[in-house]
Fold this protein.
Amino acid sequence: MTRRLLAVAVLTAFGTLATADDKKATTVEVGGLKGTTPADWTTEKPSNEMRLAQFKLEKEKGDPEDASVVVFSLPGGGGVAQNLTRQEAKFKLADGVKKDDAVKTDDTKVGDYKGKYQDIKGTLLFKAAPFDPNAKVTEKEKYRQLYVIFEDDDKKTISIWLLGPEKTVEKHKKAFDEFVKSLKK
């Protein structure tokens, strides 16, 4: 009897450990493209209807909070250039830092689509309700955003961003880049 209980306890413990480590990747479809997220991204319910997908990425030791990856698909949306400018406006540069040192924008490809890849570092001007002009702004220092944007065949503006504390974004940058590269028709 004791051996049987011990065996059940051991199997239960190992079964629990296997389940905890057995995370699965998520398939994301956007703009006629399909890709797979890393298994360690935690799927979250999108916080508003403009978001197609939303993920939480574990914070780096010493950072105040986790990072997030969000996928948007908007009809219109102002186009690529206007959206890049909007993203820059979400950040305040540290004193003495030149814009060219804090904001890098390069051409990229997502599947067959031409797009832009923007990397911004600075103080995030966070608003819980971003489109509310009266929403309170909370400044979050040492934040970073990786932002990929392109237009699909239907002229929808597709954007994918990784936003969070600088060290946490750096920790997840390679996986984010691989996810974006995984998006194919």
In short: The domain at 24-182 is CATH 3.40.1000.10 (Protein Transport Mog1p; Chain A). Confidence is low (pLDDT under 50) at residues 1-21. The chain has four helices and ten strands. The first strand starts at residue 27 and ends at 30.
